[in-house]
């Protein structure tokens, strides 16, 4: 039997209509949520993602401030711009599109963003908050994956989830979110021998390595949930994920496509975090009774 496709565009539409209502409520009280997006350089994929973020803001009642810089922008100049946006009370969220040109240290840039505005949830403070269960912004792609899994209606508690990839932005935080949902989590990576040994036992597999055909049909359990975070370009220019979609869908129960799966959900979670930042600021501005 063919798997059910988990449609990230449809789920995003549904979630974004609720987010648009929250944004409108804030705007009615003079606190329209505002996201500053900084793009350094000319990476074509980054330009597409940034355009999609700006459009998602416009479509859902958020204000976006787009700052584009040449790849030669120095690190000090970028840190100055972040300091100015940190100090601007009209800006609720700040995002620096990754990857940055090689001469800029991404860690220094991420840590320069004020924690209250770090809507990417990339800072060490957010990572620590996630680890301990404290309040803080959760990274957008892992949160999007969790929403996609939730949308299947399958419980996670007691299930075995295997994450492929240990990046700071996806694999590690996602493993923690799955753990918080009471899944038993295996975090695999490039030095894991016999990956299939792990994935064949999994009720949920999330592939986040950035290499096409990392997960093939012989590596999955019938009925499993498969979430594909990868974005790769085939020789013919078409996008594909890390999963051999056509064959894996014949075995598993649920699967996300690429495009149209995790990508749009990443942007939806960014809107959620930005609105949350604006809501927190509005609450802080309320006169205490
Ligand atoms: N500061 C950040 N940088 C990067 C992040 C991030 O969350 N914050 N994640 C990725 C890229 N990314 C978000 O920026 C992202 C990737 C893909 C999509 C998306 O909607 N993809 C579409 C296809 C788009 C296309 O035609 O290429 C889909 O999958 O349907 C959105 C956001 C790295 N950098």
From TrEMBL:
Its EC number is 1.5.1.5, 3.5.4.9. Keywords: Amino-acid biosynthesis, Histidine biosynthesis, Hydrolase, Methionine biosynthesis, Multifunctional enzyme, NADP, One-carbon metabolism, Oxidoreductase, Purine biosynthesis. It comes from the Bacteria. It catalyses: (6R)-5,10-methenyltetrahydrofolate + H2O = (6R)-10-formyltetrahydrofolate + H(+); (6R)-5,10-methylene-5,6,7,8-tetrahydrofolate + NADP(+) = (6R)-5,10-methenyltetrahydrofolate + NADPH. The keyword Manganese does not apply. Residues 6-120 form the Tetrahydrofolate dehydrogenase/cyclohydrolase catalytic domain. Residues 139-281 form the Tetrahydrofolate dehydrogenase/cyclohydrolase NAD(P)-binding domain. NADP(+) binds at residues 165-167, 231. The keyword Membrane does not apply. Pathway: One-carbon metabolism; tetrahydrofolate interconversion. Catalyzes the oxidation of 5,10-methylenetetrahydrofolate to 5,10-methenyltetrahydrofolate and then the hydrolysis of 5,10-methenyltetrahydrofolate to 10-formyltetrahydrofolate. HAMAP family: THF_DHG_CYH. Belongs to the tetrahydrofolate dehydrogenase/cyclohydrolase family. NCBIfam families: PRK14186.1, PRK14189.1. Homodimer. This is Bifunctional protein FolD. The gene is folD.
